[in-house]
């Protein structure tokens, strides 16, 4: 039986499917890469046309099956896009004096945090920041004696509609989800070094329609936000200089620079749009730099004030937008952070004959990171020409329900970047509801027994009961004396 891992990324401009095999030496061999245009169904990384997205996903699976000559059992999926943001939350538990913190107490704090309700928002992930044990901050409070335990969490939120639409698309396409991952966290694991995460850094993924900002310090995700601006905005701005977007994109790739020295600007230079039209070089430069400056300012605004001076790891740029000439210089000028590098490729060793993967331009980093994250064989039976084969084109051989028959607890997924599927979430909520019902029934039964005990005690201690008991004893004594 074949062995491979399949991952799917839903980007703003394209949906990408990839299949690869992990080798014993730690490298990954890419077996197939397929793409579908997403401009008609996804905007800023979010599904807005369900039918067209379903069709694109079906086409992706069909193409991968044909290339791999095998069925696909399930896939890994990256979650990202507009409106993803992080919110800090604090949960406090007052304890009896000199209580020793246990794992159960920590789990209870995490559970309380994950049950927080945000209007129209879904908690995708909850990153534990640290715990405050009395007056001391600790990463691991277990075993420490205290009377007050405080948990600090970073909740990653996404609009409920976007979350449900994504799940619905895979459900309608008949594609089983092995695991959903928060794409920015998976990407960070594949392009950042441990030293960068530990000493403090900002990962900036410059996409077509969105820019994702992730701040790390002491190996912990401290902030996450998705800005609805990207390379496509630069293209549209260039198009405002009286040209088609296709011409604007071509000119951006050929002439655009994130930063140009004033001395290097030639006021007489004209840039050709086509054989007949031209545009002033100065106007072109001003338009590009204005949008780049806006993107950088929005990125820097997302960095929490307490970490601005703790970025020893610097700023790491990735994504297609990081290929813009002088982008590092532009970031350096606006943020005054000297240490800036561009992550053109992931840290894993990738073996592939695919031309796009050989380029190392940052555009494939997220999908490769998802592939590297997968650890479950996604291969189904080999394809046959059997006329009685009932499996439909574009569908997987298992369902998401099959894969998540037992819902995991929140503590099993917290901090790993795992986003529970809607099916698993519903199962977990149902199990939690049943657990609470059982606990409530047990509590009511205990209360009933306690009430019966108290009623019995009241009867036994009542004046009438004592009098009757006394009379009964008197008569028993009289009878015994007569005998």
Task: Describe the secondary-structure layout.
Blueprint: E1 5-10, E2 14-22, E3 28-37, E4 42-43, E5 46-47, H1 50-68, E6 70-72, E7 75-79, E8 85-100, H2 103-114, E9 121-133, E10 136-138, E11 145-159, H3 160-173, E12 177-182, H4 183-191, H5 194-199, E13 201-206, E14 211-217, E15 220-227, H6 231-239, H7 245-255, E16 270-272, E17 278-280, H8 281-301, E18 314-318, H9 327-335, E19 340-342, E20 350-351, H10 355-359, H11 365-373, E21 379-382, H12 400-403, H13 410-413, E22 418-419, H14 422-461, H15 463-482
Parallel strand pairs: 1-7, 3-20, 7-12, 13-18, 18-19
Antiparallel strand pairs: 1-2, 2-3, 4-5, 6-21, 8-11, 9-10, 9-11, 12-22, 13-14, 14-15, 16-17
Shape: elongated
CATH topology of the domain at 85-159: Dna Ligase, domain 1
Q: For the report, how would you describe the main beta sheet?
A: 7 strands, mixed
- According to CATH, what is the class of the domain at 85-159? Alpha Beta
Query: In percent, how helical is the residue content?
Result: 25-40%
Low-confidence stretches are: none
First and last CA, distance: 95 Å
Question: Compute the gyration radius: what is it?
Answer: 30 Å
Number of helices: 15
Number of strands: 22
| CATH architecture classification of the domain at 85-159 | 2-Layer Sandwich
Strand order, main sheet: write it out. 20-3-2-1-7-12-22
Q: Beta fraction of the residues? A: 25-35%
Family: Belongs to the FtsA/MreB family.
Keywords: Cell cycle, Cell division, Cell membrane, Membrane
Membrane topology: Peripheral membrane protein
Domain SHS2: 5-191
